[in-house]
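Hello, quick one for you while I still have it in my head. A protein chain has come my way and I'm curious about its shape. Can you walk me through what the tokens say about the fold? No rush at all, and the record is pasted right below.
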Amino acid sequence: MTIKQYAFNAHAHLRAQGLPSLTRSQVHELLAAAAGFATHAALQRQAAWCDVPWRATAFPPDEDRVIQRCLQFGLSAEEAARAAQGLADFLAASGYAPVRFEELIAAFEDNEDEWSKAEEAEAPAVAEWVSNALISRMDQGLETLREELPLLLEGLEAAAARGVAAAHLATAYMLEPYGGLPEEDDRRFGRELRRHAQWSAEPVSFAEITTGVGGFVRVVAKHRYHLLAAARGGDRRAMLLTAERYGDPSALELEPSDEMDPYDMADLADAHGRPELAHQWLTVLARDGDVSAMRALIEDRNETPFRSWVWMHLSRMLDQDLSQDRHEAINEDGTLYDDDVGGPMYVGGSDGVELAPLAPEDNARAKEEAAQLFSGIEERYDLT
């Protein structure tokens, strides 16, 4: 049954309750109101109907919101109350349930992380029904997904076609178990995307997916399409995922956060000709006490003389003086040399960094700034 047919049945039920003036479009609005949305359009942007009885969810229909919508349609207070009760009875007896895209995404992420199961007792009840009634069925295989949840797939694809990034991401998460490839294949795909500068793909519908090898290829294509489309739509989670997997540059436009690996972001920026962003990410590392990043900024990133001395003073405060030579015995492959193993010995490590001196007043300011940074590092990492 499609959602249009479902609304048709709801419409017929309400007409039988003595409410002939309600139109089909108004019934769609009342269904959205029962689900807690201000309008049918709002529901389409944030949720989809799924193949689960409403009674299996953790929340009752919002009868008060249904009454308010009925009053807006010009029904009397008595008719509005009758419509709300009639619709609640219909939903309890037949029932599809609305599921928010963000609830689906959260349930997928919880299902992915085993550690989160220890916290399930504190999870919202709505997340529990999504996990129990939907995610558990999806885990049974792609064919089960298509056979048992057609209404949900229809709603996800319809929302994705309207450009809803969360619908794209929910669909990608849904397909993840069936469209996963080895890491090297993902990297190869990323190289192809960079070569062609094409960070999108043609959509593949669920109806086009068949069994066998050809079907797997289509699942992979659909998974990647929705994940990239979610990133193109500005979903932060998708942007970070596609950056990690494919070297997708969209994540470069995000504000820095703890979710991002600064080294990975610096490499991503370099790969896409954004040296200024690579410099910013290395600076994030340096300010956090990463002496290797300080060296990279001084030697490879055209750091100003003043800023170079800030890093030099900070490295000394961290007992990793960049001006000192740091050499060590290594093997040919770069691993540390082991006297017990023996064999050819090579010299590894690095020479000390040499900087032209600053004017006394500038050097004092550089020391002061380094001391402020060091104080922040001490506070964050309890170095005292």
Q: What stands out?
A: The longest helix spans residues 360-381.
